[in-house]
Structure prediction request, 291 residues.
Amino acid sequence: MILRSFAKINLGIHLLGKRPDGYHEIVTLMETVDLADDVAVSGQESGTTVTCSDPAVPADGRNLAHKAADLVRDRYGLAGRGVRVHIEKRVPVAAGLAGGSGNAAMTLHGLNALWSLGLREEELMDLAAELGSDVPFCLYGGAAVASGRGEKVKWLDAAGSRHYVLVCPPFEVSSGWAYSQSKLELTKDSSCINLVSSVMQAGDVDRLASCLHNDLEPAVRAAFPEIDRARGLLADAGLEGILMSGSGPTVFGLASGRAAAERMACDLRGRVEPSWRFFAVSSKSRWEAGV
Prediction:
């Protein structure tokens, strides 16, 4: 079976403190967009085999899809079951878009069907939380507020559609490094996330552009001047609500519609070197983004 593994963007991230387990306590608002990998899940005699169209993606136990398969096999005593996962990669790697987390989430769905496990949503969410902070959200996508280290997810009924241009500069940012560099004393409480949630649920795109925030962005911008260059490209193109997604380096801006986003992305591709990647994307609802 082939499942679509959609990217996400963060419309708000606030760091609320350091947890005893070493993670940061966060509150974030995420939205699925229609840039997607294809994750093909099929049976094999034994073990776990992961392949990917992008050679930069590890195929061993470091890969989150590989970890997902091993976790399910160990948790449910399925040592005799084998699985092959092939990822056709379109979402940039280590770019703040949860590409690997989405691949792991779709692997969980695929194994639930392939091995006829009959796992309910809460069981899948528990497995996902063991794999990574973004994996629970990526199981179903849509728009949601996540808290804790990201594993506690509350889905939103976001009105209308939103359209974005994504700019991905040609380098990777480690999320662990980005979190370690952020200054907690400069952060705010979660009230801004509540505002973004309200605006999204009201479908007020114009107001949405003025209330986006990412506590990780200042440190990443200071270390990587390409972030400012990406922001400048989007601003010059007339986009609003410009923000870095996750730990970067992807930066996005709000467009007035899908056609406008596609036109701007096409125009921007001609302004910089080919290693920079541009995507016109639109929001995806929870159920469209799921299986």
Observations:
- The two ends are 11 Å apart (CA to CA).
- Residues 221 and 227 are 5 Å apart (CA to CA).
